[in-house]
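User: Hi! Is it possible to get a structure for several chains at once, not just one? Here's what I have:
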Amino acid sequence: MTSTYAHAPGFVAGDRPKIVTSRFEFADSYTIERYLATNGYAGLRAALSQPAASVHDEVRNATVLGRGGAGFPAGTKWGLTPQEVWPRYLVVNGDESEPGTYKDRLLMERDPHQLIEGCLIACYAAGLSRCFLYIRGEMALAQERMAAALNEAYAAGFVGKNILGTKFSVDIVLHWGAGAYVVGEETALIESLEGNRGMPRLKPPFFPAANGLYGQPTIVNNVETLANLPWLLCNGSEAYTAIGTKTSPGTRMVAVSGHVKRPGVFEIINGVTTFRDLLYGEEFCGGIRNDNKLKAFVPGGGSAPWFTPDQLDLPFEASQVGPAGSMLGSGAIMVMDETTDIPAAALTLTRFYAHESCGKCTPCREGGTWLERILTRVVEGTGTDADLDQLVEVGSSICPGDFPHASNADLGLAAVPFPYKMTTICFVGPSAYAPVHSALTLFRSEFEARVTTRKRIPVTAAASSATGHAS
Amino acid sequence: MSRLTDANVAIAYEIIGRYPRPKSALIPILHLAQEQDGYVAQDAMKHIADLVGVTSAEVFGTASFYEMFKFEPVGKYLLNICGTMSCALMGSEELMHHAEKRLGIKAGSTTPDGLITLEHAECQAACTEAPCLQVNYRYRFKMTPAELDTLIDDLAAGKLADEIPSHGVLATVRQHIPADRGVGAVAPEKVNESPEWLDGKSAL
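Assistant: Yes, the chains can be modeled jointly so their relative placement is included. Here is the combined structure:
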C-alpha cells in the first residue's frame, strides 16, 4: 500500500518503518501545534534527562551513518573534536544540490521542528554552543518554513537561553546560501558561512572537527542525519538498530527519478532494500516506463559511477556498493531506459560539474571545461575518434589511476572499487569525469557511432620511401 | 541604484548580531539588498561593506561567486528551467526551446518589457517531478510546454502576484530571535570554557 500527498509532491509513503517521515501525511506537519501533538520535542526531553555523554553514547551505539554522501557515523564524528578547545559549533548542511537528490528539502519543508530538535540533541550531546543552519539559496519555501518554525520554537522555549528551564542554552541561526553547488562540501560550506567565496579548504589541516568555523572545532552534519535523532532518543538505539542491517541501521531517504513509471522519494529500510526493489517493486517505482528495458542507472547522485542491470540485486549497503564500483552517496538514483542517448545523458552531468567548479584546483577548473567541450563536440556529431581518447586523457589528469567502474557481463569487465584517486581538493573534479568514464566504459560503441574516424597519414611509409627502404 | 533603507539597515544589524564575526552576515545582507532593489546595486555593496566592516571589493568578491546575485536589473520574474540529468531525461531541452520561442529571447536574457528573465538552471532538487522549473525560486513541477504557456500568460496578467513575489524576495518570513530568549553571539576568542551543561549531570 502506497500513499502520496498533494501537500508533499514527490514523496511516496509505504508500509515501512518511518523514522524521519512520520508526519508527512499531515498537511500542517510544519506547525508547532502538529509537532507537539505527534510526540514532538519528546526526544529533546529524553536527551536532557540524561548527562550529555550518555546521549552521545546512545548515538554512537546506534551507528547513525551520515546521510550527506560520505556515510561517516555521526557519533564518531562528534568525538573527533580536540579536548578542551571551546567554543565548538554545529553547522547543518542543508545545501542540498547533488543532481538527483532531494530529501533534505522535503525534511525542511515538511518537518522543520524535527530538524530543530535534532540540532538541539546534537548540540547537547557534543557540547556545541551555537548552531548555524545553512539552507540552499534556491529553496525559498524551506527557508520560510525553517524561519517560521524557529520563531515558534524560540517563543515556546525550545531554543535559546535555558531550554525547558535547564542549564542547556543554544541559539540556532538560520543562514542561507546564494547558489553554488560546491558549498555542499563541508569546508566550502564553512568558507561561505564566514562570508567568503565558497571554495573548499585543504584537508589537512582544515578538518572541520579540529579547525572549522572561525578556526574552532566544528561539526558539520547533514539535515537527514540530524532528523534521525529525535526518533532515536525517543525509542533508543536498540530499536534503531533493529531496523536495517548491523552496518547500515535505520532507514534512508532515497529519490528515484528518470525513466521509471512512478518516480518518487521513499524512506527505505537501510542495507536491505535492493536497487531491483526500488526500480521494479510495486511499493516503489513499479518498473521502467512503457515497460522498456533498463539501460543504466546512477546509484548515488550525479557523482557516482553508473551501474547496469548487472548490479540491480545489490542492496543499499555501502560495504557492497563500494567494491562493486560505485557509491550510495546522497541517496539519489537516476534511471535511464533503452531509449536513452547515453553520450547526451553523460553530457548533462559533466556540464553540471564543469559549471559548478569553483576554480580553485586547475585539474577541475580546466579539465572539467575540457571534458564538457569535447563531449559537446561528440554529442553534436562533430567529434573525431581522437576526442574519445582525449576524454580519457583529460579525465586521468583529474583522477589518475584505475577509475572505479562496475562489472559488466556483456563486456567482460571486472569492477574497480570506489573511491576515486584525485588531484583536486574536493570531489567536484572527479565528479565531472565520473559520468564520462562510466558512459565510455560501458557504452563505447554509442560514442564511436557518433564520431568520424580521422584519416591517418601513414608516417612510417612516408619515412621509409624517403630513405629508399622498402617497408 | 541605492543604499539600504533605514528599515533594512535595522534588519541588517539584527542579522549581523547573530554571528560571532560580522562578515558571516554578508550573504544574507546581500540577499536583503537584492530583495530591496531586485538586484545587488553597487551603492548597496558599498553600504554593506560599511555595515559589515570589510572593503567593498571584498563584498563584490564574495557576491560574484554566487549565481543568485545579479549585478544588473533583471526581469520581475526570473524563470529558471532545470537542465540537469533527471530533467533532461524527461524533456527539459524541449521545454527550454519552447520557452525561448514563446518569449522570443535566448536563455540568459530578459524580455523587452522587463517581465521575464529566462535562465538555464542546474539541478533544483525536485528530480522526481521532472521537468521542473522555478519562478523567483518558487517551484513548478512536471511542466509541459502548454503549462509553460499558461504560466507565462498568468505572470503577464499579474495573476500570480500573491504567490510569487518579485525577484529578490526569498522567504517571506524572517527569523527573529527575541532579546530575552537569545543566547547571543560571542567572538570565539572570548570563550574558553566548556558549556555549562557538560558537567556530567542530566539537565532535566
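The domain at 6-63 of chain B is CATH 1.10.10.1590 (Arc Repressor Mutant, subunit A). The helical segments of chain B are 6-16, 26-37, 42-52, 56-63, 85-89, 92-103, 145-156.

User: Great, thank you!
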